[in-house]
Amino acid sequence: MPLLSRDTPRLGLGLAALGRPGYINLGHGQDLGPGKDPAALEARTTEVLDEAWAAGLRYFDAARSYGLAEAFLGRWLHARGHRAVVGSKWGYTYVAGWQPLAEVHEVKDHRLATLERQWPETQAALGQRPDVYLIHSATLETGVLDDPPVLARLAELSSQGVRVGLSTSGPSQAATLRRALAVRVDGTPPFSAVQATWNLLEPSAGPALAEAHAEGWTVVVKEALANGRLSARGLSGRGDVPASLQDLAARQRVTPDAVALAAALAQPWAAVVLSGASTPDQLRSNLTALALKVDPASLMDLIRPAERYWAERSALNWN
């Protein structure tokens, strides 16, 4: 069953940069301004969510580790009376104590105890069951894809109508996804959704995502703007948006972020591409991607080796 109706924009809104005061998107702290207490961030989140809804967006993505993102989203849905497709994730715990420059922001744990704790927490915060529920940043190293009790519990949720899957990160995204495609519980595949990083700098997961799509999985693209590195902000002291991307954006009379998002939307296997906007202006700029036609092959000069890309991402500061 398709995740969204045919007349719904394939752009969604991710709340990673809205639900907590610190994140790794370039310029995030400046975007939020001085008001970063929970009430101020909830007001900002409501403003961006209202803008997204007015534009027709109907897919919203959160996670237990996104601070209060689930609660903000749940209260907004209830207050507005909206029905939307909601995705969330388990496996990381937010531990920053609302400090933007905390030494540690989130702790990863893919054991069954974390799943059993976070599943009811997510439902309580959202005020409903999520439609899509993902292992947050599954990797081969954590062993979560070979953990029978975890897989059995996820299979149970799948049998109850939740679209269960995983999100991926790191240079081994493709290998992790292909391992997940092979998982069976009592002969039945428990997974049917994946959220992965794909962008003009790091498209290496593309072939595996196409395989997942061919198997009937829902594919959601995250970090299409490479945590702000492909946005009009430039690299905030690390350099500028690549010249070829700037030139194409200028020719189309849009901003680079719109071109980067349009390139992701051009992938035939992508059901939803997430905007990570933290201001209404950013979201409006992102939305122009929906009217663009971009051939990603024209920007292949931007591609970086996956190991290099993920090393650069790991070096980004929380702000």
UniProtKB/TrEMBL annotation:
The NADP-dependent oxidoreductase domain, residue ranges: 44-297
UniProt-listed SUPFAM superfamilies: NAD(P)-linked oxidoreductase (SSF51430)
Gene3D superfamilies xref list: NADP-dependent oxidoreductase domain (3.20.20.100)
Pfam family, one: Aldo_ket_red
Superkingdom: Bacteria
Protein name: Aldo/keto reductase
Lineage of producing organism: Bacteria, Thermotogati, Deinococcota, Deinococci, Deinococcales
